[in-house]
Amino acid sequence: MKALWSRGTRQPRRRISISKIADAIHAAASYPGRKCRAISSWREFTARYADYNFVFAPKERLKGITASLKAAAAKHQRQVGTLACFTLIAAKTDAEAEALTQKIIDDADLVAIENMVSSAKLDTNKGGSSDNLKAALLQSAADGNMAYMSIPVICGSYATCAKKIDEIAQESGISGMLWSFPDFVQGVRDFGTEIMPRLACLKNAPQREHA
Questions:
Q1: Which residues of the chain have pLDDT under 50?
Q2: What pLDDT was estimated at residue 41?
Q3: What is the pTM of this model?
Q4: How far apart are CA 84 and CA 61, in angstroms?
C-alpha cells in the first residue's frame, strides 16, 4: 500500500499483517496533499494491481464482467481472475429448496434492509452500491434479492444445483465461486458430499499443486 500510494506501483506479493496495513493508512492520512495516482475505474485499478475481482452478479452479467476485466488486465501483461459470490440453497428436491429460498425472502428483516440501502445512498456513482442495493429490493433470488444481501442464489436439488454451477462455469469464464449458506455447517457438508461429486467443471479442471 505504501508503494502504491507513493509511486503508483505495488511490490511483489507477500503476506502483510493487519498492523502494517493500518500503519500505511495512517501514513497516507498524514499527507493530505498527496493523492494516489489517478485510476479511471475499478476495472482499471483491479487490472493493474489485483489478482482477483470479487463480484455479486447473476450469471447473465458474469460473462461480460469477466471478459472486460481480462481484456483490461491483458493491456498490462497480467492475468486477473473473477470470483463470483453466490448463496447456495440445496435440498433433496427442487421444491424443498425453492420453498426455503422463498421463506427467507418472506421473513426478511425489512428495517435492517432499509438501513443498509439508506447508508449505501452515500455512494452516488452510477451502477455503484446504492444502485445495486436499491435494485435488489425487487429482484428475484436468482438475481440477488436484498434478503440475501444482493448475492444471487443458486437453489434446487443437489443434481439441479450441480447442473446450474456447471452452466455458470462453462458460460462465464470465471475463475471460481464463493459460497454462503443458510446453515453453513450443513451447507458445506451437502456441497462436499452431494454436489461436488456431480460437478463436471471440477472433473475437467486442470490439476493444481496444493501449498
A1: 5, 18, 21, 25, 28-29, 31, 34, 208-211
A2: 77
A3: 0.72
A4: 11
Question: If we measure between CA atoms, which residue out of 47, 22, 56 comes closest to residue 132?
Answer: 56
Distance in angstroms (rounded) separating the CA atoms of residues 149 and 142? 12
> Domain segments of the chain: what residues?
1-38, 85-203
Contact status, residue 158 vs residue 198, Cβ threshold 8 Å: yes
Contact (CB, 8 A) for 82 and 53: yes
Exposure string over 65-83, b if 16+ CB within 10 A, otherwise e:
bbeebbebbeeeeeebbbe
Q: Which three cell numbers stand for residue 152?
A: 444471487
Grid coordinates belonging to 30: 498524514
H-only helix segments in the chain: 2-7, 18-29, 42-49, 59-74, 94-106, 110-120, 129-136, 158-172, 184-190, 200-203
- DSSP-derived letter for residue 54 is E
32-91 per-position pLDDT tens digit: 554 555 555 778 989 999 999 999 888 889 999 999 999 999 999 999 999 999 999 999
Of 150, 191, 180, nearest to 58 by C-alpha is 150
Interatomic CA distance for residues 87 and 161, integer angstroms = 11
